[in-house]
Each structure stands twice: as C-alpha cells, then as structure tokens.
Design goal:
- The chain is of the alpha/beta class.
- Helices cover 43% and strands 16% of the residues.
- The protein has a 7-stranded mixed β-sheet with strand order 1-9-8-7-4-2-3, sandwiched between helices.
- β11 and β12 form a beta hairpin.
- The chain starts with a helix and ends with a helix.
C-alpha cells in the first residue's frame, strides 16, 4: 500500500520524484519538513508573503537559523514575479525561494512556473506550498521545476486531515545530503524517515497513522479514476456557477479574476452585515460552514470552499439559497 501511495502521489503532483511520500502529520508539518531539511543556519531565503501562510514560511526560516528576504504583496494579490526578480538581484547569495502557490487565507493563485524559473536563473531551489491547490488546479512539479512541495490530505484530496503529501527533487535531495549540520528535527529528518518509506527493509522510524494512510490511498485512487484534468475542470466549472450566484447577490471577490482559486472563493462582507452572525446562522439553520477571514482580512471577508467532494452543484445551490435568505430575505 505504501508503494502504491507513493505512485499515486507522483501522479497527483505530476512528478517522477523518487522522494515523494506522506508525512505522518498535517500540512504544517509538511511545511516544516521542507524547511528543516533544506535550510541551514546562515542561509538566505527569499520568502513571498501575500497572506497568512507566507508569514509562516518566513517564521520557519528564522527558526532554522536562516535569514528571510521578504517579498510582500497585498493580501488578495498573487505573488509579483518582478518583485522576486528584484529580491534575487539584491541578494544573489539567496539559496532558496519559498512561496505559496494557492494562498488559503485569500484565495489567490500565484504563477508557480514563472517564480520557479526566476529561482533557477539565480541558482536557487524552490519550496512551494500547494496545500489548497493539489487536486483542484494544475500542480506540475516537474514541468515547473519545483524542488520541494508540500500539501494536505484534507483539502481537494477530500481525505481526513492529518497527513501531508510531500515531494523533493533530485537537486533537493543532494542539498539535504550535503548538509554540514544535522537536521534540527529528529522526527522530520528525511535521512531517517526514508528508511521507513523505501525498500523492502522498512526500517522502523515511528508508528505511522495507518488508517489515515489507507484513507489517503483511497482518496488518491478516486482522483486517478476521475482523472486529474477532469478534477481540475470540475473545480473550475463549479467555481463559475458559484461566482455567478454570488455576484447576483451583490457580493464581490477579493481576488482579481485571473488569479482566483476556483476551490476557495473569498468575497467581501457587505457593509452593515454582521459577518460572524451570518456564518453562525448558516451553520445552525442550513448545516453549511464557510470560513472567516484570517489575519489582515479577519472580520472583512467570507471564504467559501469548493474542494474535492464538496465541489458539487447541489452544495452550490444550497449555499446560494441560504445566503440569499439571510442577506435579502
């Protein structure tokens, strides 16, 4: 099952990376796994911040003893490649570029291919957060040249939370093997974990969450049966249905149209509306839970997820009818 799971994850990530598996913990630990293995004390890392999860990347760099070079964009905007280029020109000794492909706090989708190409020109590796994008929009690690990526089992893969699919390129593995100091985390040290995930020996490292791994395996089988392209199109089609209905209710999107995540729709709360009260009534009266704003957008937006199994026309119809009754009823 573990070997099949690795193969299914390679399909989802669109990669041939040998080092592709599921970390026995949620996406936040997948993030840490990338940073503690690839960032050494003194390393300079260009970190793109356009929401909550870019901020967490920068904190990871600091805790690894590295120096984050911050590239900031407005919350709701994608990462600006021109700013990344300027950051590398100002800091040509930066060894890694870290960015969030699909910013969960805003619903913004960044141009991963362009960002990774900039990093390559400056001889840097890339770390990409694709927690919300994997299975919902194209994630093409090999085509884009991404060196390390992490995701989560609970978003568009529709599994239970608690596992983090990760993938590392050959160049990333070489950097890990060349570390001058040990990985600061024993649990996440890939040099140790790999003995459990590879070969026939299955060297014991930790007690893996077996039932969630079987669940993720089944989720990935379902994704393969639907087909990646079909899953991406389903998320896109349902986003367009939801967008039409939300705009008919007078709601406007935070993210511009060409940078929107179809699976995470963030809209401004109308003036004079108690956003928390609406969310509470949606849950209590209709059984619908939508997300509140995070960080700089707290209290100002609603985040409506259309991920994985929940990306269905029946859910959209119910959500729009419920919102209409609460906002205009």
């Amino acid at each position: 099952m573990m070997d099949e799971l690795k193969g299914l994850l390679r399909y989802a990530f669109q990669t041939g990376n040998e080092l592709t598996f599921a970390v026995s913990a949620p996406g936040s630990v997948g993030m840490e796994t990338c940073f503690v293995n690839l960032v050494s004390p003194g390393d300079k890392v260009v970190v793109c911040i356009n929401g909550v999860f870019g901020q967490r990347m920068a904190e990871n760099v600091r805790r690894c003893g590295g120096t984050p070079v911050i590239v900031e964009d407005r919350w709701g905007d994608p990462v600006d490649p021109a700013k990344v280029e300027e950051a590398f020109k100002a800091h040509p000794d930066a060894v890694i570029l870290a960015f969030v492909h699909a910013e969960t706090s805003t619903g913004a989708l960044s141009d991963a291919a362009s960002l990774a190409a900039i990093a390559r020109r400056f001889g840097a590796l890339t770390i990409m957060d694709c927690v919300t994008s994997l299975g919902g929009v194209p994630v093409l690690l090999d085509e884009w040249g991404i060196d390390a990526a992490y995701s989560g089992s609970q978003k568009c893969l529709s599994c239970t939370p608690g596992l983090s699919p990760v993938s590392f390129s050959v160049a990333a593995v070489e950097r890990i093997k060349a570390r001058k100091v040990p990985c600061p985390s024993w649990f996440q040290d890939l040099g140790l974990v790999l003995g459990y995930w590879s070969g026939a020996k299955r060297t014991y490292h930790h007690t893996a969450p077996v039932n969630p791994l079987y669940g993720l395996h089944e989720s990935l089988v379902m994704l393969a049966e639907e087909g990646l392209e079909n899953a991406w199109q389903r998320h896109r089609d349902n986003h367009l249905r939801l967008r039409s209905g939300l705009e008919a209710l007078g709601l406007s999107f935070v993210v511009r149209e060409n940078a929107r995540l179809p699976q995470l729709n963030t809209v401004w709360v109308p003036d004079g509306v108690d956003e928390a009260a609406v969310r509470t009534r949606l849950l209590q009266e209709f059984g619908i839970e939508i997300g509140a704003g995070l960080g700089a957008l707290a209290g100002r937006v609603w985040r409506i997820g259309l991920m994985g199994h929940s990306s269905r026309q029946a859910n959209i119809t119910l959500c729009l009818a419920a919102l209409e009754s609460l906002l205009h009823g």
